[in-house]
Amino acid sequence: MQTMIIILLTIIIFISIIAMLYIILYNKIQFSKIRTEQAESVILDELQKRYDLIKKCESAIEKNTKMDLTLFSDLERIKNSNTSSYDFERKITEAVSTIYLIKNDYPKIEEKKDFREIIRKLNESDTKISAAKSYYNKHNKELTTLTKSFPSNIISLIHRIKSQPFYDAVEIFNETDDGIEI
User: Which pTM value belongs to this model?
Assistant: First the structure.
């Protein structure tokens, strides 16, 4: 009888340890997933703000330089289509680079108060996006590690939790890295 109680207590302790491990690992996975999603939300909000600033800047450039800017029509097309935030971010970055080139080519445009204000806001937005990308990549790296290592990979499979592509990874790698789609 005493042997049966010891076996039963051993089983209960073993199940309790496994349950605690499961809960701890699940919470770690969820923490990283939530932080990644929050950072992605900040990035998307900032991309929308940048898009709005680019549209304002487009009219200021056309007014002050008499340039016909068909380059920005691509940006509008991508925004209205159902493309990924990564593609949208690349197009916005391309448009902002073009704005800086125009700013350098037409020094008189920088004398305009509205244009200077847009450039200032674009710089602020760039800082926020860089910080959010860093935060996103940090927590996405943790999530990737958890979804690929034992025993947390079993928990992530059970709950269908996957890591996301890294921001800025496209500039470093042109192909997929370690099974992570970029």
Answer: 0.74
